[in-house]
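Help! Submission page says 'invalid entity' but I think these are all valid:
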Amino acid sequence: MAAAAAAPAATSVKADYEALCKKLKEVSALSGISGLLGWDEMTMLPAGATESRAAQKAALAGVLHEKQTEAELGELLRRLQAANLEGELDAFELANVREAARDYKKLTAISKDLAQREAELESRGYQAWVKARQESDFSAFAPVLQEWVNLRQEKAALVDPSVPVYDCLLDDYEKGMTAARLDEIFSQVKQGLVPLLAELRQRGQAPSDEWLKGEYDTKQQAELCNKIAVDLGFSLDHGRLDVSVHPFTGGTHPTDVRMTTRFKKEDLTEGITGAIHEMGHSLYEQGRNLEYDGLPVNSALGMGVHESQSLLWERMVGLSRPFAAYLLPLMRQYFPQLPADKTPDDLYAALNIVKHPSMIRVESDEVTYPLHIILRYELEKALIEGKIAMEDLPALWNEKMKSYLGCLFGYFPTYSLGAMYACQIFQAAQRELPGLDEDIASGSFGRLKGWLNEKVHKVGSLHTSGDELMKAVTGAPLDPQIFLDYLKHKYTELYQL
Amino acid sequence: MAAAAAAPAATSVKADYEALCKKLKEVSALSGISGLLGWDEMTMLPAGATESRAAQKAALAGVLHEKQTEAELGELLRRLQAANLEGELDAFELANVREAARDYKKLTAISKDLAQREAELESRGYQAWVKARQESDFSAFAPVLQEWVNLRQEKAALVDPSVPVYDCLLDDYEKGMTAARLDEIFSQVKQGLVPLLAELRQRGQAPSDEWLKGEYDTKQQAELCNKIAVDLGFSLDHGRLDVSVHPFTGGTHPTDVRMTTRFKKEDLTEGITGAIHEMGHSLYEQGRNLEYDGLPVNSALGMGVHESQSLLWERMVGLSRPFAAYLLPLMRQYFPQLPADKTPDDLYAALNIVKHPSMIRVESDEVTYPLHIILRYELEKALIEGKIAMEDLPALWNEKMKSYLGCLFGYFPTYSLGAMYACQIFQAAQRELPGLDEDIASGSFGRLKGWLNEKVHKVGSLHTSGDELMKAVTGAPLDPQIFLDYLKHKYTELYQL
């Protein structure tokens, strides 16, 4: 203390950075284990073991929290942020320090008490929601939801009181995104989509998928989808394909990505598009840069970008005309009962029906889905900003209470952002990879995967926002017009407007 | 410090005990996770993910070590051991304090440096062994083995310099056992077995298993064995059955016991007896007392007792005459090609052939196996006591170097102890459960399982040694004569001596 005015201790930046990396890698390994506990719970765990698994998850979460908030980690970050890092660290290394500091700040801002109240409310809230839903009684759920809103506001005030509440929450799921930017994007989408949907409804000629109706053995479906996943580039050396009630992509590490699918015997195409969707998530995970293994720069940029990778493969590739040329012969190999006279164009049309265009539905097609998301976004933002009263919520929108649980407030917009990112990234890929359509039609997906590996997967969290990533990959920030043009062009033709 | 002479802080024994349990349960949950990492590695892990799994295991092992050696835990144990616990804690609670203190003492005795040298040598030693074995060059492996012996001696001196080195190491695997007691047991076994084996070899008429030769679909074998496991009492609600290259029983908790088996299409009986063996381990795990969930009293008493449970089911039940009456009709259901004229007695005889009685072999039958173990025991004890020189080892016994790796020194005796415990426990069960043979012949295993649950499984580590457990369950410490009489009686009849 007496020597406080003397020169700072001669700890070199490099040594501090190495010490930081060691700690971050330990946290990453423990997070990987947490991924295994989750995957195993969904696919393997015996029914009678849920309590012991909950205890295991809680114990590991406690350890992770201790490690992520320990004072020594904070001290390393403080020193590194105070030091002049120019010339000492490269862009990826700088991003590691930035992201680690961001996570540390967020995690240490919240008191243990608040974290426990959140966990308690999450469990109690779910039970309250289930009961309220069974009894169609929103008033029984409203107090819990109000508690949740209050807790989120409390959290945002602790994490960063200098930004609007919704922005602070949004940042958990979509780094660098703000409500102002979302308003701009979503209002443009709404203006373009509403008339397109009206036109589809009034004048469109829906294609037919009658010829796809039938029964399809689910084991055969699983084999077909595994073949597609491997064709698209999923590495079985670095991942597994399993079946679960709720399809998801998880795992423990970029070399151990675990993707699950589900199949219904009466619906062949849902299983295929679902599998391609998860495969897109998996390729993002498998594509990370192992040079930065276990470090924050190597994590996903955000939920929106993750969703952009699943939707790029599902929609831009899987629902495209060239893909149908690859897919139809393959479907016939596994299901010879498919009518012989149908062409890839028939399959393309059938896969792209805008279902029930007169109803707003969750898990709907690519045209109506964004409107559904925008509705949720507007309501949750108004709630968190205190602009609407809880009791008015059912009147405003009484369909889906589930959406107001769990990871709510900041999470939903990422769904639609993903669709728009996907469209813009794919347009850039088409520009840079001449003959991409022919590749896809012939089942050669390697160039596209390689391009995404370089442009998106390996840069992980190097950039500070989705817009920055879009600039680096496509030359411009997210432009919703690209998405609108794509939809308009595609459906004008398909529905013969 | 000034008040050091005043009364101690009024921390109640109960409060300290509760605080201890909380810490122990956390460690238990983390150990359960470690079990999942191991199971997953053997059954599910993609080939390209071994490095990341190694990092995950190391990270979790580090956390476990931190938790198991933290000063606060030591302080709680110190206070509890200094307090008068009579009347405050019951027998199970006292055993928790005793076992926790024992583990803490062992773990904190070793320096971090020694633990790291051990881990390093284990990995380097394995590679050296593989190479030496390929080149049949013991001299290339001898220095590593000598290092291993030295490290074990160093460890024993740190853990408890007041007992002989071998006893200290033995205690890791078989609580309360000593070399003096082992010498006593094994010399009696040797004296009884050697003449029996000689007689079998000279005068015995080996039964025939020719009629069992053939090809058996491995999927059908797996289904048959799953049926047997469930009949024997394995709960699928609290465990899983899978296939792996090396059969083992693992899992994360008594409610999540994971057993694996393997099958060869040319050997029907090996798959069945192997599955029954693992099932015995599984029943021990599933049978633990959940009232003491996550506490040390609820852990296995030792490797010998664990092996006693697998061998009780494998040998006392699975290789018994009444079991053959249950098994043969079941085998016929799954494999109708089995000859119709064979009887349960023929099956009983075929299952109990003493294979190659002229050769000493690992994984041999119940008569020759103990001699094999005794050989190992005598050699490893002489090595660790410095009574034989490393360079004489190949001459003394040059068959199996693998045995001298990993968990060596103190581990091997538990194999044969298990067989003897099993025999004595089963004899007690026969005494206390009249009609047990008829139960087994009709496929009713519930009474035996229930008896084992009460007598052995639920008492976990309540007792301080295998001898104490034997006294509680059978009325006397381990008596090798029971094992010898069993073998003599069984094989005199089978081989018509």
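Support: the input was valid. A stray whitespace character was the problem, and the output above is from the cleaned input. Residues 213 and 266 of chain B are 7 Å apart (CA to CA).
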